[in-house]
């Protein structure tokens, strides 16, 4: 099935980003691969905002490492089934911005490819992950503020509980997509099945 016309693939070559797609590996909070293959997608508006953020980051010597972007509804369900925590995960019934191709999880890397210190790892389900957390080192607070500034200047909204999560301001303009409807083939044989 061809890729949905509203999605575009995010590749290192075209976007000058690094991909560390955690849900295609066991290196995530579930301890298991959710996706059956490593690929990254965003809807067209979000992809354009990412391009703007990449350019702004490059101006000050940084690049982005992407942990996740488009997340099929089956994956939203699998994550929720593992850890139904509304402070950090969108309930499948709400329709995640990720399943609309309208959200991205990422961090900053320096010129050597090293991640900047952010105080917690990606997907740490703790108040220390909140924007404005004051019980993290000053360096991590500074780095989070740089990430927040770059992303908001490029047209992204933030989620207050996750320093790594950014989304379009009105993601509900876009439909949620299953793996089949998206044509992303992310779920593969490894992924979970679920309702659209």
Automatic annotation (TrEMBL):
Q: How is the cofactor bound?
A: Binds 1 zinc ion per subunit.
EC no. given is 3.4.13.22
Residues of the site described as Transition state stabilizer: 71
Instruction: Give the positions the UniProt entry annotates as the active site.
Output: 162 (proton donor/acceptor)
Q: Which reaction does it catalyse?
A: D-alanyl-D-alanine + H2O = 2 D-alanine
- The residues the record assigns to binding Zn(2+) are 98, 105, 165
Enzyme category, top tier: hydrolase
UniProtKB keywords? Cell wall biogenesis/degradation, Dipeptidase, Hydrolase, Metal-binding, Metalloprotease, Protease, Zinc
The biological processes this protein is annotated with in GO are: cell wall organization; proteolysis
Q: Which GO terms describe its molecular function?
A: D-Ala-D-Ala dipeptidase activity; metallopeptidase activity; zinc ion binding
Cofactor names from the entry are:
Zn(2+)
Q: Which Pfam families match?
A: Peptidase_M15 (PF01427)
Top-level taxon in the UniProt lineage: Bacteria
* Family per similarity comment: Belongs to the peptidase M15D family.
Query: Which NCBIfam families does this entry report, sorted A to Z?
Result: PRK10178.1 (NF007557)
Q: What does this protein do?
A: Catalyzes hydrolysis of the D-alanyl-D-alanine dipeptide.
Q: What is this protein called?
A: D-alanyl-D-alanine dipeptidase
Task: Name its species.
Answer: Sneathiella litorea
UniProt gene name: ddpX
């Amino acid at each position: 099935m061809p890729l949905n016309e509203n999605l575009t693939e995010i590749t290192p070559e075209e976007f000058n980003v690094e991909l560390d797609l955690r849900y295609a590996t066991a290196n995530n909070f579930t301890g298991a691969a959710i996706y059956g293959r490593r690929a990254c997608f965003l809807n067209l508006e979000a992809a354009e905002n990412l391009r703007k953020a990449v350019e702004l980051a490059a101006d000050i010597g940084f690049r982005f490492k992407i942990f996740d972007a488009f997340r099929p509804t089956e994956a939203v369900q699998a994550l929720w089934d593992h850890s139904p925590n509304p402070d950090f995960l969108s309930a499948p019934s709400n329709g995640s911005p990720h399943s609309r191709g309208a959200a991205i999880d990422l961090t900053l890397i320096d010129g050597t490819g090293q991640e900047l210190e952010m105080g917690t790892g990606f997907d740490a389900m703790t108040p220390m992950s909140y924007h404005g957390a004051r019980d993290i080192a000053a360096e991590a607070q500074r780095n989070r503020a740089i990430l927040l500034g770059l992303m908001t200047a490029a047209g992204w909204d933030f989620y207050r509980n996750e320093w790594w999560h950014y989304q379009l301001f009105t993601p509900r303009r876009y439909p949620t997509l299953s793996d089949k409807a998206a044509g992303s083939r992310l779920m593969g044989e490894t992924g979970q099945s679920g309702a659209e």
